[in-house]
């Protein structure tokens, strides 16, 4: 659930006091009181804005531009950069432009042309993701924009196709991006390997054996204890945050069902009423707020 999806889902859930957790939604908008039942296991975008400003000052980039998607993710990201710029010396955000979510091709052409014409701007923060980042970079190649350093946020991960496309090699030379810290989960890798072995062996899926043999020269027999190091399913930087989100819900539910009065988290030490497989969103919200095993080390905090 990314920022846009998180806002839509959380707005609906908020009416019924149903909590939600996202391992992907980073928009600072979700930190407002409008989304009091929203949680996330990943840090919000204000740290990204601060990091970009730190990078600019470290490399003595005094004149930068920002191109972002015209949604909560992009706008709050750029506003965060502007806030950082206002508190720092020798750093100017000379140009900010937003790419619309629909009918964006003409606007992308205009933005790229403007960047190409403004030769003073040597560094561009790219706050885009998915097809928007791809279309933007394709247009930059088409217009032969040179001499720029492109800094990508985690919306455009190294798994994006244009990072591996030879057409973009020249324009991306010297550019880099930022990603949340990836924490490898060996148990999860083993689980995926065993799941693949159990569900996809045999004649019903003959392509599966060919796939593993082609990928890093791994055979199905070798997957019992390990998973290919370059497999995106196992190495996405968001895997650990997704696992944290699942565990947060699991621990909260476990604590609700195993609650013994007077040690409950409700007023007066009472325990929440639980029956069969039904729990009340308001009560689950209380127990999620006290998921202390994630609050400090993983960043799971209400509206943060």
UniProtKB/TrEMBL annotation:
InterPro entries named in the record: ANF_lig-bd_rcpt, mGluR, Peripla_BP_I
Residues of the Receptor ligand binding region domain: 2-283
Recorded superkingdom: Eukaryota
Keyword Glycoprotein recorded: yes
Keywords (A to Z) from UniProt: Glycoprotein, Membrane, Transmembrane, Transmembrane helix
Chief localisation class: membrane
GO CC term, one of those recorded: membrane
Compartments reported by the entry: Membrane
Alphabetized PANTHER family for the sequence: METABOTROPIC GLUTAMATE RECEPTOR
Protein name (Swiss-Prot/TrEMBL): Receptor ligand binding region domain-containing protein
